[in-house]
Amino acid sequence: MPEGPEVETVRLELLQLISKKVDSIQLTPLSQKYPKYEGKQPFFNQFSRKTIHSIDRFGKFLVWRFTNVEAVILNHLGMTGRWCLYKDLKKLPTTTKHIKVIIHMKSPPNALFNDIRNFGQFKVFQSFEEVQQYTPIRSLGVDGLTTPFPLNEFLTRLAKKNFKDKPIGEVLLNQRLVAGVGNIYKTESLFHAKINPLKKVKKLSNTEREELGLAIGKILQKALHDKGSTMEFQPYELPSGTTGNAQKWHKVYKREGKPCLECGTPITRMIQKDRSTFYCLQCQK
What we know:
single chain
């Protein structure tokens, strides 16, 4: 699933649509096979001939706002959701066979939401205030891409009782702690801070907690700079069709059995809450 850096990179490319007028937003015939889109077209008709005012990010969510209409659209990329920008809708590549939403613009490019596995979201809320109260957004922790990284708030949240008896490798995936951290950057942040993913939060020293917070901020900013990670199993692409480069510097993620780039010890893989975690037994004792 795209994490904070990938979603932010997508948002930055979509900003070229700001201040441009929408002709219409179309839920495709394919989308109507799924309950979350079925019969929802009337909700999207209110955005016809409206201008895109802003596209904001909250963790892994995007919120589209328009001028002269209170309603907003909440968008989540899910596991395979991808925005594509095309001038001519009659010349789409074969890779766009799973289009659920088309934003027809008065002037090109048009924006298409292609979602192979259909885990993405594209949902209307009646106001910006309402979407802010949507539980997955209201409960988000610190934004990991905030600069400088909000270390004090991170430490305060990490000290909460509901985290203390859990392994830090599990806790870091909780969006109530740090919004935008997923399995890739959790793994890389723990390696950077030299913390074992099995270590319980209550066992972390104050120094380790601080180093982890700083590592998260550094890793996420580095990933954002390199426009996210594009892996073989995660064909993430930007709206422009380009791919990310952050995977080129991964130290442990998906490197099971390969030598640690710092000490040579083979990288270990284990499962934490149904997710693969990679770490070095020597560097992360």
